[in-house]
What we know:
The structure holds two protein chains of two kinds.
Chain A: E1 2-3, H1 19-26, E2 50-51, E3 65-70, H2 93-100, E4 126-128, E5 133-137, H3 152-168, E6 186-193, E7 196-201, H4 207-214, H5 223-226, H6 243-258, E8 276-282, E9 287-292, E10 306-311, H7 315-323, E11 329-333, E12 347-351, E13 356-362, H8 371-375, H9 378-386, H10 390-397, E14 402-403, H11 431-440, E15 443-444, E16 452-453, E17 474-480, H12 484-499, E18 503-509, H13 511-517, E19 532-539, H14 564-575, H15 581-592, E20 595-598, E21 600-601, E22 603-604, E23 607-614, E24 617-618, H16 621-625, E25 638-639
Parallel strand pairs in A: 3-10, 17-18, 17-19
Antiparallel strand pairs in A: 1-19, 2-12, 4-5, 5-7, 6-7, 8-9, 9-10, 11-23, 12-23, 13-19, 13-20, 14-21, 15-16, 22-23, 24-25
Helix pairs in contact in A: 1-10, 3-6, 9-11, 14-15
Chain B: H1 2-30, H2 35-39, H3 45-54, H4 61-73, E1 79-80, E2 85-86, H5 87-122, H6 127-141, H7 144-158, H8 172-177, H9 179-209, H10 212-219, H11 224-236, H12 238-253, H13 256-261, H14 267-277, H15 280-308
Antiparallel strand pairs in B: 1-2
Helix pairs in contact in B: 1-15, 5-6, 5-9, 5-12, 6-9, 7-9, 9-11, 9-12, 10-11, 12-15, 14-15
Amino acid sequence: MMRKRVAGGLALVLAGVTALAACSGGSSSGGGGTSSAPGSNGSIGLLGQFGHVPAMAAGPEHAGTITVAAPPDAAPTWILPMVTGATNSVYTVPEFDYQMYRPLYWFVNGVEPTEVPAMSLASDPTWSNGDKTVTFTLKSAYKWSDGQPLTSKDVLFWWYLLKAALKESPANWAPYTPGLGIPDEVASISAPNSSTVTMNLTKAVNPTWFWQDSLGSVQPMPSHVWDIDATGGKAITDWATNPADAKKIYDYLAAQSKSVSTYATNPLWQVVDGPYKLTSFTPSTGAFTMAPNPAYGGPHAKVESSWQSVPFQSDAAEFNAVKAGSIDIGYVPLTDVPQIASLASSYNEFGYSDFGWSYVTYNFKDTTGDFNNIIDKLYIRQALAHLENEPGYIKAFFYGAGGQGFGPIPEIPKSPYTPPNALTNPYPYSPATAASILKANGWTVVPNGTDTCAKPGTGTGECGAGIPAGTKLEWNVIYNTSPAVIGEQVQDWASQAKTVGITMNLSTSNFNYMIANYNDPSSPKTVNKWAMQDFGGFTNSTYPTTFGVFNSAGSSNVGGYDDPQADKLITASISSPNPDAVTAEAQYLTQQQPSLFQPNPDDAFGTAAILVWKKSVSGTPQSFESLTQASWNPEYWFFTK
Amino acid sequence: MVGYILRRIGTSVVVLIGVSFFIFALLHAIYPSPAIDVLGARANSALIAAWNKQNGFDDPWLVQYLHYMGNLVRGNLGYSYKLNQSVTALFGGVWARSAWLSGVSLVLAVLIAIPLGVYQAVRRNTVGDYVATGMAFSVYAMPVFFLGLILIQVFALDLHWFSFQGSQSSSLLSVVVDFHGMTLPVVTLTLLTVASFSRYMRSSAMDVLAQDYIKVARAKGLPERLVLMRHLLRNACLPMVTLIGLSIPTLLAGNLITETLFNYRGLGLLFYDALGNADYNVLLAYTLIGAVLTIIGNLVADVALTVADPRIRLA
């Protein structure tokens, strides 16, 4: 998911902090160290974390209404568990929709991007027929809130409505990629019995990818209640065989989902399989309250509490609420981290990066000044990486609350797919090394001037193909002004580059303009208008392939990166049976540096911040940790008094 | 008078059409389609094309404009695809909140600034004048964000007299009676407006005090209270009428920074969020409403001037 690293957007930057990185400067007195932070009790926690999560309180659990902060521009805008592209966000899906309508598989386990089997509606899938047939079984523990069992028919109902929705418009389901995964790669679907679903695929796929990226997006719907095309209408039972009727049902449900003002009162949305039911919703602000679903079949606190999402119109307003003690679970914006110690007596605090990457995109198609021929040289990209002072940025710009990122998979959060070269920076900060690399490849290095190619040619010690003599190392860099840390990092990077004779001409823009105009696939007319740009980054799914971003035909290959080896590895990640394929992909990209990977600030509620929660609120450590990964598990929370 | 107003309304309609055309063209030039903003950078060309078609963004922009204006005439301000609500519903949910916040602040500011300005003019170069001038300059020079933060820190977080945020109720009645929540945002806006208006009023009153008719009134032995009330106040207020008229758009347009700081959902924030989301229809509607209010404000000010000063004749 694309991110602009700013409150109110999608999820925020990500990150990776290694033990070495943290020790060498990723930490600071501000708190981003390897163990404790101001206000913590000094307990040892995860590497790279800020503060700590205490163990779950052992005393009696008390119910109540837990207030939870919602960052600016975070109002849920869709309720049907088939989110559209326009309404998709972490605030509409995991914070809101998933509380009522669970996905088949739950993939955030505290800070780790791994499955939580106990919270998954189905048992792990089994594969056969050379990875062309997948079967899964629904667990009997999960039921609808009206007492009806959750059955394979409910999965099929979702499936046929999805087909109807996508026939109307591919934009009707946000996760949809034409030709890939669900539903295009599924030749047929069947339900051998009331709890089992079988899918026959059109070709063999990588089982892990299909499981985590495709099956993980399936949200069964209560077919026994929603099989109507009008309020109070008669049940339509032939939706599996009659596409026209499936379309009628989808159109009706989508229309109901557009009626934001009726979310809390429409009886349709009161039949749920998740831990909560919606009890109030304010369309003008996005404020809502949820009450426990007594029939929920998954794990939860002994005493279940209601919870209330409290919207804030600015980070400053939210921080005022935290300072006033009026919010149970909130966040401290990154810029206010230096003040966090003042909350130590009343709030717990925890900071961690989410799973993904931030980057400066290189434009491999920009022919201005032969930039395309410059940037396609690995040694140039390596030199540029050596000019980035990630530990310094974390200390100076993130107040210690962040971690380093060297490639598309950070070291933390811990992932089963982390490659070895993501554990330490392969190109650590060293302007001297950068200068040496340039000199060794035929460039005349002029500190604080502009380097030129002195030795054109393709031989050893020469500049490389397509770079004539006298070519200058000078180009433009456009960066997003929000949040400010993007500009701070880019400015420092450009400043370091200047010390070795690389001239970066900086200019500013905004997220929307940049992804619309400085984006090779969607805006080919402007390929020569920009050499580098920094709009933010991407959040990984738990299966962290960069398919779509760094494969040559990727729809989000913003800079037109084109590397046959990368294509081969990325394709293997989604189509080969090799369970290590995505690790190999990440290892290669980390070594190749198709972009400048940047450090990532800590994240809470999908924004750059440190999570805080009152000491009177407790729950499983994972239920708080997961908020740094834009995953809400309020069913585990309770008051201690 | 009636003829003048009708002519002004006619002119205003032409201006509004021009403004709408200009805004629409400008928006289209910057963002031919917000599809990729809405769908995200992972959206491929098929998704973008489908979305454009679904939302009419594949038509020529002039057709899009005419279509928009056709809907506008029928009272349809369009649909916010990002917020999944009609623009009318979105505006309906918050306009009264913005109007209340800005309106109360404006009224209070006028009630304070006019007598303060007169007092300063009459007692110019006294300690009272210096103190008021100093305070006005201090507040005027202060960014609204900073002033609000200070008020929150002192009166909400330290003294606990008021809430750190404005009323969160969606009922206007509740907002109106929520003194605990609304005091600080109202005071913030009022102080800033008083700082500005009082300077205008002081300057205007000083000009009037130097006029011959004031001297004549005093020479006739008219009590000073009557000189000030009958001859000074009415004439000195003329520039204020124009200022107040120009302030009318803020009644609905909202005060973005104050709303943001005090967590008070209003039109200003709606617009700000729409900017971030490239939410076409909200941006268009907000801009057009701003234009309408600016024109109305000017018209009201012109008419009010003729009432306040019969010497002014409308052509």
